[in-house]
Amino acid sequence: MLRKMMLLLLLGFALSHPVRAALTIEITGGTAGAQPIAIVPFGWDGQDALSTDVAEVVAADLHRSGAFAPLPKADLLSQPHEGPQINFADWRVLGAPNIVVGKIRPSGNGYMVQFQLFDVFKGTQITGYSIASTAQDLRRTAHQISDLIYEVLTGKPGAFATRIAYVTEVVTNRKSRYSLNVADADGYNPIPILHSPAPLMSPSWSPDGKRLAYVSFERRRSEIYIHDLATRKRDLVASSQGINSAPAWSPDGQRLALVLSKDGNPEIYVLNIKNNSLQRITNSPSIDTEPGWTPDGARLVFTSDRGGKPQIYQVSIPANGVVSKPQRLTFEGDYNAHGVVSPDGRSLVMVHGQGNRFRIAVQDLSDNDLRILTDTRLDESPSFAPNGAIIVYATEVNNRGVLAMVSLDGAVRQRLTQTEGDAREPAWGPRIHRIKP
Amino acid sequence: MTIKAFSNSRAVIYAILVHVALIALLGVSLNWTPKITAQPQIQAMSAVVIDDSQLIEKKRAQQQAEQRKQENERLQALKEQQLLDEPRIEQRQEERSKETKEKEQEKRAVVEQAKIKKQQEALREAKLKTAQEEQAKKVKQADKQRAELEAKRKAEDKRRIEAEEDALQEQLAAEQQRRDSDREKLANAALAKFSVLIKQKVQRNWLRPQTARQGMSCTVLVRLTVKGEVLLARVVESSGDTAYDRSVEAAVYKASPLPLPQDVTLFDYFREINFVFKPEG
After folding, report:
1. CATH second-level architecture of A163-428?
2. CA–CA distance, B78 with B208 (Å, rounded to integer)
3. Which of A64, A224, B64, B258 has the CB geometry, 3.0–4.6 Å to B228, for a possible disulfide?
4. Is the CB of B211 inside 8 Å of chain A's CB atoms?
5. A30, B176: Cβ pair inside 8 Å?
């Protein structure tokens, strides 16, 4: 009798709890694309209209990264401003895995900006912050929110609350006026830090974001200055006979790679900023220029026509001072110049010439696979965002120099707004206004 | 349990019946002659063993035959005695003349006869006693046999029940196996068909991030409702890239509900699915 009962029990157990390995299905391919994200306009408790639409800035940032596709405002179902107001079942229908809501209220002389990021499918909050801000800082606060969202969703730091330096040339009455400018990474809030009737060139950020090195022709020849942004104090660091150009700050902030022609023709040197000692890196009868550091600070890439046509080479500069023999990195095409190594050290971005077109291309340094990222004609001066996800570069549109950005996969290209003149030689600054998640 | 209790109470009823029968037997044996007493005894026994009535019937028949034989023997002995008596009477009639002499002889004969009669009586008594003893012995033996039979019956019952249970178990197992193999066939067909449908739907919903690289792989464990709705998608093996892992989770949720066979008995095969996401095939 007992046995019968046991048997029935066992049978029942076996039927309700089958011991079966889970089915495994392999998914391949998919569609390469940006993740949709719902960014709802933030609520505002104050009287007057705000100077900045924070949600719009966040949406633009995330879009520019290439990783996200913010839903058009018209597609938003409702306007929740905090978690409890979100009806996740409704939002799931839109297919965006994430939703950002927020609200702003007056606080002291400024604002308190609150935002929350939710997982739409799980109905859970992923992250959320309250950030104190002011009317002037509202855009920066928005960029900081973008950074926090980007970082938590991609696992990589954001680079929206950063700045770019670039040169503009405005011609009035046949006279040129050059400016060195610093703006938010999205091109907003441009601030000229230097005006000059003579050309300004090649800005390079110090790793701490406090100083800029650049070339000025203000004394009718090329010289290299280091400019402190806070004190507005300038130091002339290279003024040798001939060419003084293309400064590039080392990752440790102690050295400046540059090009000097004091010994006959343009060669790469490394200047120790503290003791002004100079180390010669290249020695060839050809032109060697446009040095750039690898992120570890142990190597330099540079452009050289030693092989007949401009190509990018690499040298090691070990601590003992013995420089390795230059090694050629680019082989595809007749013209590859202005090499920049990505912050992760994996890719080399350059200006790739093909016929009369010069476009931004990226080369994978492990398999040397070259991809062209842009579709314009005269691209120049690529510079990586500090997180390596976006590249800023200069190009020409309707005979006018403009700044543009492209995501590393080439999927999202965007021109930065610009009021007047030609813009060129952008340099992306380091991350300094960062809220640690 | 109730059935077991019932079988116990049945045993108790039997025991009571046996005791009543034995007491009745005691009462009867005081008044009646032993040769008839065996009858109710056997009836009582036949009331006990229901299942083995044939055996008991045979036993009773044997006992009856034995009793009949004993009775015949006793009658034969009496008859022989009568035959012995007759010539002696004739002899006395013939020798009536010699009465005096013979009277003593006759007296002696009478005494002798009485003596013989007494002896015969004693013999008869002894025989009866033996018969009684034998009868008691037989009753005892019958009791023992009955007990043995009862034990045997119980053992057989137990064996039979166990055999039945084993047979049932085997039958159930066989049925289960048959059902399983039918289900297996159905399930294999469903697995083949719906794996493809599910794969296609999830694939359509997968937005690969720009950070996806060849060689990346992310495994997500998905738990479904019977309607194919994704209850839970959990990354069990990360690709190392957060955006990639998130895109994988999102793909599964966006593909919800996943296509499942209409036959809900096949749901067990789809309750949990491991999806392995790779950028390249």
Report:
1. 6 Propeller (2.120)
2. 122
3. B258
4. yes
5. no
